[in-house]
Amino acid sequence: MLVISRSRLCLPLIGIRTRIYRPSSSSAYKDEDELDDITPTLAELAKRKRKAEWKRRQSGNFLDHIIVQARGGKGGDGCVAFHREKFKPFGPPSGGNGARGGDVYILPTPNLTSLASVTRRARAGAGSHGQGDWKHGRKGEDLIIRVPLGTVVRELVDGRKPKDPLESEDDSLQGLSEEEAEIKRLDKRWVHYPMHEESNLDRDDFKAAQKAIEREERARKREELANTREPMHLDLTHPMASSLSASQPC
């Protein structure tokens, strides 16, 4: 029977009998064996959890492909100065050279598992400027890009880069005869005084200057062909030393 009085609820008394459970010695030994089996499992789960949290702290999501715009540091400017000293009104030059910019290195690291920590725009430090009193600038700070082991680095050729002036000239002369191409070259290289173009073409000094320009262009083409290199391709499967001498500059 229930009696309701405002907000208080009264229930009839019910007797409750309690019993103390005492496990036997055999069951206690069994529980200890189960605990011994569970302990390594819990330790392994805790280890996996710590590893997952560590990976998450590396900058979030897993990333295995990225395009990076890497650029070396800008070189410093030189300084023009002259030494000034008492009783020496016209001192010798005392300027300093500007320092070269920093380099960009790619260093494979065994502790990394993702490219999420790699910045998309990497640029080394700029070199400082020269100063008076024969003070040269300081080299720019190098930049080290750390990547996981097994990373493959390929250099992409920028198609937006303007062509060399000589290459552009050769492309514009395609389809023309030899005489027409020669006339086009002369029009681009020389600006004649009005009404004196024909007389200039027959002069010996003009022909000598024309041959000197052609020799210079051929030497420039040979130099460019000698300095032409294939795009960089690296397969970083082995760890390298932390020193910059063992790293691969790009």
TrEMBL record:
Disordered, as annotated region: 196-250
GO biological process, one term: ribosome biogenesis
Keywords associated with the record: GTP-binding, Nucleotide-binding
One Gene Ontology term, aspect cellular component: mitochondrion
Basic and acidic residues biased stretches: 196-236
Record-annotated Obg domain positions: 60-250
Gene3D superfamilies: GTP1/OBG domain
Signal sequence bounds: none
Biased composition (Polar residues): 240-250
Family membership noted in the UniProt record: Belongs to the TRAFAC class OBG-HflX-like GTPase superfamily. OBG GTPase family.
Name by which UniProt lists this protein: Obg domain-containing protein
Organism per entry: Rhizoctonia solani
